[in-house]
UniProtKB/TrEMBL annotation:
Lineage start: Eukaryota, Fungi, Fungi incertae sedis, Mucoromycota, Mucoromycotina
Protein name: Cytochrome b-c1 complex subunit 8
Bilayer topology: Single-pass membrane protein
Keyword terms: Electron transport, Membrane, Mitochondrion, Mitochondrion inner membrane, Respiratory chain, Transmembrane, Transmembrane helix, Transport
Subunit structure of this chain's protein: Component of the ubiquinol-cytochrome c oxidoreductase (cytochrome b-c1 complex, complex III, CIII), a multisubunit enzyme composed of 3 respiratory subunits cytochrome b, cytochrome c1 and Rieske protein, 2 core protein subunits, and additional low-molecular weight protein subunits. The complex exists as an obligatory dimer and forms supercomplexes (SCs) in the inner mitochondrial membrane with cytochrome c oxidase (complex IV, CIV).
Keyword Transmembrane helix: yes
Signal peptide feature range: none
Cellular component GO terms, alphabetical: mitochondrial inner membrane; respiratory chain complex III
InterPro entries: Cyt_bc1_su8 (IPR004205), Cyt_bc1_su8_sf (IPR036642)
Subcellular location: Mitochondrion inner membrane
One of the GO biological process terms: mitochondrial electron transport, ubiquinol to cytochrome c
Record's function text: Component of the ubiquinol-cytochrome c oxidoreductase, a multisubunit transmembrane complex that is part of the mitochondrial electron transport chain which drives oxidative phosphorylation. The complex plays an important role in the uptake of multiple carbon sources present in different host niches.
Length: 91
C-alpha cells in the first residue's frame, strides 16, 4: 500500500495535537518591526544630501538661465525707462 504510516503527526515542536488551550494569546514581532526607526535619521540625512547633490547640475543650469534672463530683462527695462532709452526708441 501507500506511504501512509499510522503514527501521529507531531507537527511543529511541542504540538502534540491535544485539545487547544483557550485564553492564551501569543504575539510575535518580526525583527524588522522591533526596530522600525533604526537608522532613520542617518539614512534621511545621507539619502537626502545624495539626492539633492545629484540634482545640482540640473537645478544649477535652470537657475543660471533664469538669473541671466531676469538680470538682462531688468537692465533692458531700466534702460527703456530712462531718458536715454526714450530717446533711443524715438518717443
Amino acid at each position: 500500500m501507500g506511504g501512509h504510516v499510522n503514527k501521529p503527526y507531531f507537527g511543529w515542536w511541542g504540538n502534540l495535537k491535544g485539545p487547544t488551550q483557550r485564553g492564551v494569546v501569543t504575539y510575535v514581532l518580526s525583527p524588522f518591526e522591533q526596530r522600525m526607526f533604526a537608522g532613520v535619521l542617518h539614512n534621511a540625512v545621507f539619502n537626502t544630501s545624495r539626492r539633492v547633490l545629484s540634482q545640482v547640475p540640473y537645478m544649477g543650469t535652470a537657475f543660471a538661465l533664469g538669473y541671466f534672463i531676469y538680470t538682462s530683462a531688468k537692465s533692458k527695462h531700466a534702460f527703456l525707462s530712462s531718458k536715454a532709452g526714450h530717446a533711443a526708441e524715438g518717443h
